[in-house]
Amino acid sequence: MECAAKGLVAEPCAGDGAHRRCGICGAVAYCSRAHQILHWRVHREECERLAKQMSRVDMLSQFPFTFSMEPPAQNHAFPTRCFFLQSMKLHQKGLWKPECTCGPEVASLEDLSNAAEWNLKSSLCPCTEPENHVPASLSSWEGYYHWRFLPLDSPVAVLLHWVKSVPLTLYHCLQLSHFQSSRSDLDTLCIHYLVTDFATFITTVFEGPEKELLQLAVFGELRALFPGVHVHIDLVGPTVPKSRDGEVVSIPRYAHCSDESCCCKSGSEDLTSSPVTLKLWKGFYHERYRDIMKVFLTVTFLLNSNPHLIFAPNAGVAAYPSWMPTIEIIRGAGIPAIFTDFCEEAAHLASCCISSITGQPLRIPIQVNPFRQPISVDNSALFLPCYSNCFVFGM
User: Fold this and answer.
1) pLDDT (tens digit, 9 = 90+) per residue, 256-267?
2) Measured in whole angstroms, how far is the alpha carbon of residue 89 from the centre of its chain?
3) What is the DSSP secondary-structure string of 334-357?
4) CA-based max dimension of the chain
5) Three-state SS for 233?
6) 239 Cβ contact partners less than 8 Å away, ≥ 6 residues apart
7) What is the spatial distance between Cα 190 and Cα 309, in angstroms, rounded to a whole number?
8) I need a surface site. Which of 10, 139, 216, 220 has the fewest CB within 10 A?
């Protein structure tokens, strides 16, 4: 950690790092007692809030999963994420391939035969219709695994959150917006999915048709979460490639398992649910809102209808001024909107920005997302609590 007073006081920091923590919150560190005293006039405004956040840190690492691995040796050539995939026998395979960081990018149409593959046995992945309807109380990874009859050593939660589709987080946000209690006999569920430069969904998934087919199949799980409903997502962001603007992607079935005899391979599975479709829009939401709504009203023929939810994952509201006109649009439209951010402090700063624009408190207060990423796997750490897409709040 860097000294919290660095750059804010005239005296330079001591040379051996910041090892002195605030004794109240423990969230900030200092290089010396002198810097801690000088910084108190700034830190005292946030200390109590940070202390409350720090008291919830242990909760962020509470997960039911039993999948694990031995950490790689220090001289191991594999990046840590690839080492994890290899330990699960998933390295460079199917849906997992774009997550590998050790090899070349997916660049050949030859890979499309495995594009929608979990590369797991049918008992370890959700490759067919669920046996039961989604329970009304579904609010945890443990509940999801129980509903889908998955053992806790199945790694599917990692992929369901590694890719930016986050279907379980999207489902949770719809629950928070009271969608489930008011859906009645809904035929189509319409969601506006807002992507920013901070949430690099497009640049990591939509660079080519191979990545699109390899990872968008995970959106198919929305068919199980909303049975009998056509889920349509308008995905809007400035990083959508110009060549993909206006493209519609259909996801008609679940990602396949590796069992050749499974009904997901034979085509005999029960496909009673409607397909999931995504339409890509290049630009900021406030720039494309009129175009999106014009198409929406033309298709639905409902002059007074609105989408059911606006969803913005890892939004970074406090970091990007471009959110201001978008929030104004959302406020005027009256559409329920839910944002996520990478940590609770970022969510707090974002909520302050939103309230300053709207003049109203948040309708949905800041809370932990129960379907947050189960593990953090990168080149520097293993199995640390991951704060990505962790906190949700809404207007």
Assistant:
1) 899 988 988 776
2) 24
3) T--EEEEESSHHHHHHHHHHHHHH
4) 72
5) strand
6) 195, 197, 200, 201, 202, 203
7) 7
8) 10
pTM for the predicted model, two decimal places: 0.85
- Do strands 376-377 and 382-384 pair parallel, antiparallel, or not at all (unpaired)? antiparallel
Q: Are 27 and 52 in contact (CB under 8 A)?
A: no
Is residue 349 within 8 Å of 316, Cβ to Cβ?
Answer: no
DSSP letter string over 57-107? TGGGG--------PPPPTT--S-HHHHHHHHTT-TT-GGGGGG--SSPPP-
Helix axes 344-358, 47-54, angle to 10 degrees: 130
CA dihedral 48, 52, 54, 59 (to 10 degrees): 180
Other beta carbons within 10 angstroms of residue 381's beta carbon come to: 12
Q: Which DSSP category does 312 fall into? A: E
Closest Cα to residue 179, out of 193, 189, 167?
189
CA atoms of 176 and 139, how far apart (whole Å): 11
Measured between alpha carbons, how far is 265 from 254 in angstroms, rounded to an integer?
10
Of the candidates 233, 245, 232, 330, the residue with the CA atom closest to the CA atom of residue 280: 245
Structural tokens at position 225: 């979460």
More confident site: 286 or 211: 286
Rounded CA-CA distance 145/257 in Å is 16
Residues facing 364 on adjacent strands:
394
CA distance 84 to 99: 11
Residue 30 pairs with which residues in a beta bridge?
20
